[in-house]
Amino acid sequence: QSALTQPASVSGSPGQSITISCTGTSSDVGGYNYVSWYQQHPGKAPKLMVYDVSDRPSGVSNRFSGSKSGNTASLTISGLQAEDEADYYCFSYSSINTRVFGGGTKLTVL
Amino acid sequence: QVQLVESGGGVVQPGTSLRLSCAASGFTFRSYGMHWVRQAPGKGLEWVTTISYDGSDKSYADAVQGRFTISRDDSKNTLYLQMNTLRTEDTAVYYCAKRGTSGSHKHLDYWGQGTPVIVSS
Question: Would you state the pLDDT for residue B96?
């Protein structure tokens, strides 16, 4: 149950697009279309942003989109806004009915 | 609206036990699998355990296997986490989370605000 690999930090200017990667193995990210992404502001509970690789819950902006290729999933945020500054975590179903998070990525909006 | 409220956290010594509770409301609790997730101070999220809607299927992270037990009482709409033989590395905020409603259900669509557990001598 090793954590999925995410970049520690990414940054972008308002209006720009950024992409956060999440790399696992064929036993988790690559084996299932069950990757989800969570946004967490300091001191707050995580919030679901994308599920099943690319689906968005109602109420989440369409500026957030997800994709997957092989063992790597990605979250893209377009039209960056100041309120997007937060930590982002990927999460995947894994074999034997376990789950695993990524290490987290700190997004800074310059 | 969905609400998840954790309780039971506190400061305990290594080797002791603690039971966390998560009171659920705003949805049909007995129909949904539930999870516990923790976050050590300044660190990332770590999945801890999950229980199926009917309690028949449970899974645990390697770090807690054999020490922690997840359970549920549908008559009280409450999820529990029994934590035994606590270690300093178990220090974290513990969140309960509800299994997703849409698609594969393999995600967490609602989270509580968390309860802190500090294991220290």
Answer: 98
Q: Could you tell me the CA-to-CA distances from B116 to A31, A44, A71, B11, B68 in Å, in that order?
A: 34, 13, 34, 8, 16
Sign for the pseudo-dihedral over CA of B2, B8, B12, B15: negative
Contact A36 B35 (CB under 8 A): no
Reading the block at residue A41, the tokens are 């502001």
Chain A CB contacts of B63 below 8 Å? 1
Q: How far apart are CA B7 and CA B12, in angstroms?
A: 15
Using 50, 70 and 90 to split pLDDT, how confident is the model at A96? confident
Q: Which residues pair with A92 in a beta bridge?
A: A35, A100
Interchain CB distance below 8 Å, B44 and A96: no
Residue A14 distance to chain B (closest CA, Å):
26
